[in-house]
Amino acid sequence: MPEHLQRPSASHIERLVRMALDEDAPWGDLTTQSLVPSEAQATAHLRARETGVLCGEDLFRFAMQSFGNVAVEFTLHDGDRFAAGDTLATATGPARSILQAERVALNFTQRLSAIATQTALYVAATEGTSARIVDTRKTTPGLRILERYAVRCGGGGNHRFSLSDAVLVKDNHLAAITENGADNITEALRAMKTRLPHTTHIEVEVDRLDQIEPVLAAGIDTVLLDNFSLEDLRAGVQQIAGRALVEASGNARLDRIAAIAATGVDLISVGALTHSVRALDLGLDFAVQS
Prior knowledge:
Blueprint: H1 10-24, H2 30-35, E1 41-48, E2 52-53, H3 57-64, E3 71-74, E4 81-82, E5 87-94, H4 95-125, E6 132-134, H5 144-153, E7 167-169, H6 171-179, H7 185-194, E8 202-206, H8 212-216, E9 222-226, H9 230-240, E10 245-249, H10 254-261, E11 267-269, H11 272-275, E12 282-288
Parallel strand pairs: 6-11, 7-8, 8-9, 9-10, 10-11
Antiparallel strand pairs: 1-5, 1-12, 2-4, 3-5
């Protein structure tokens, strides 16, 4: 697997999967325990019902191995593309263990693969440009590290992970300081910089072209052009002229991504990578061994 994917840590995966398993079967699996013999052995194949990009193999494996000695072998790995009908993995072991883990294992793999697949479509639409697709903080609470990993599996990049990682001054921040008497945005941003470590990346969102110069005058690192028309995006890129990175955000639908990328922006942040994906259609084909 490529190094840039940087898998989530084993401890993080264990914590999230155990939480999900406890939620799914807080007092055990009544159906399986009352119906399936404890000695029954089974083989289950994880198969794709549609094309996509795989993500979630470590979570699938840990879920499957949480209730017994289940062997899991993947034929593909995170970041690999697959077609409908492909077998992605095989789990072999106690039937009870596989059945109890099935839904949690699929839930994680279906959602993360959906994010990776969606991201790959957006990345493909920027081919031939210098624009990079990145995610946002519009993630499922508690699952951000997994969903951002899925974005990387699809070829995208990550924005700041949390509010603690970098400064992103948005329109509501500017409105708050303006209402409190800070009419000079440049001076307000310069004052803010004196209260930050010198290594802190600073990004400022603007929604009009005339806001760009006062922001650049403060020496910020990235200008976020929010909900700009294509014409204004091109004008903003020309105005900034390399003095800062340029990020486009807002209305970043897949059918507009190629046109946005062609304006010359450096980054396109897309909330839809994580906040509105449809779970990918993966299934577990199950057979009890005689």
